[in-house]
């Protein structure tokens, strides 16, 4: 779950779908890449790493990537 004041809705509640596909956008280098989360855990990527509920690009970005649900 994302800890955010303005986010009233959370996208991560589709329990019928084991895998969620997201577009991750790096705030530093503006890379856009598809990532997959299973039960809120990042899988199958070496370009991104997960810290708690945030996904970071491995380009050295200190801000987490924006994640957009890809339907
Ligand atoms: Zn980056």
Helix and strand arrangement:
Blueprint: E1 19-25, E2 32-38, E3 41-43, E4 48-51, E5 54-57, E6 66-69
Antiparallel strand pairs: 1-2, 1-6, 2-3, 4-5
Principal-axes geometry comes out as globular
What structural class is derived from the secondary structure elements? mainly beta
The mean pLDDT is 84
Largest sheet: 4 strands, antiparallel
Span between termini: 19 Å
How large a portion of the residues is in β-strands, by DSSP E?
35-45%
Run of helices and strands: EEEEEE
Strand elements, count: 6
Count of discrete domains? 1
Strand order of the largest sheet: 3-2-1-6
- Tally of helical segments: 0
Q: Which cofactor or ligand species appear? A: zinc ion
Unreliably modeled segments: none
Question: For the CA atoms, what is the radius of gyration?
Answer: 12 Å
Binned, the helix content reads: under 10%
Structure report:
With 71 residues, this protein is mainly beta. It has one domain. Helices cover 0% and strands 41% of the residues. The protein contains no helices and 6 strands. The strands form 2 sheets. Strands 3-2-1-6 form a 4-stranded antiparallel β-sheet, with no helix packed on it. β2 (32-38) and β3 (41-43) form a beta hairpin. Bound molecules: zinc ion. Zinc ion binds next to loops.
Concise summary:
With 71 residues, the protein is mainly β. It has no helices and six strands.
